[in-house]
């Protein structure tokens, strides 16, 4: 029996990221969107297990797309929630230590990193994510965008440090079509301590 995946609790309350992200967005995003990825992932994995048991290769291959999309959605949102923190509880407090040194070495400053990141994630066509990653071999930082719910590790084994959801469901109720405004504000609630932990463990 395949392991059932479950919706993780948020490490803060739904309204705690206000005014940067509204309670309404956080509730819908976590309870409806992320929850749907988890439910559909479990359904697809169960169907895959049945298809595998009967040796139905056609059915197995047909399920891979759903596993990638919903599994990616579960992976990405599970990272995203921990990448954020309320103001006064770490949100927006700049990184320190080896991560900050790597940011300065690669981008010159935190402000320059943010500018580069927003310059890539802002114009992304359709739905997707912006990512700060660590490349596995050179151990350098990088900024990439992914489409839909593709998990970022599929890009050459990139190790996700910080993911910003730029699907419209992440901002539309509050920012309407102004994705750049959402991207300008989101840094006020980025939990750099969490990004640092991911960097140090990568
Ligand atoms: Mn989302």
Question: Which features characterize this protein?
Answer:
binds manganese (III) ion; three-stranded antiparallel β-sheet; minor pseudopilin epsh fold; Helix Hairpins; 202 residues; mainly alpha
Walk me through what this model shows:
The protein is mainly α and 202 residues long. It folds into two domains: 22-82, Helix Hairpins, CATH 1.10.287.990; 97-201, 3-Layer(bab) Sandwich (minor pseudopilin epsh fold), CATH 3.55.40. The chain has seven helices and three strands, in the order H-H-H-H-E-E-E-H-H-H. The chain has helices spanning 23-53, 57-82, 97-107, 110-121, 172-175, 179-185, 192-201, and strands at residues 128-134, 141-147, 159-165. A three-stranded antiparallel β-sheet has the order 2-1-3. A hairpin with a 6-residue loop joins strand 1 (128-134) and strand 2. The chain is globular and about 55 Å long. The protein starts with 22 loop residues before the first helix and ends with a helix. The structure holds manganese (III) ion.
Major sheet, described briefly? 3 strands, antiparallel
Strand percentage: 5-15%
Low-confidence stretches: none
Net shape: globular
Mean pLDDT score: 97
Estimated radius of gyration: 18 Å
Total beta strands: 3
How far apart are the termini? 31 Å
The CATH architecture name of the largest domain reads 3-Layer(bab) Sandwich
Number of helices: 7
| SSE string, helices as H and strands as E | HHHHEEEHHH
Structural class, from secondary structure content? mainly alpha
Query: Share of helix among residues?
Result: 40-55%
The CATH homology group name of the largest domain: Iron/manganese superoxide dismutase, C-terminal domain
Quickly count the domains. Answer: 2
Query: Which ions, cofactors or small ligands are bound in this entry?
Result: manganese (III) ion
The largest beta-sheet arranges its strands as 2-1-3
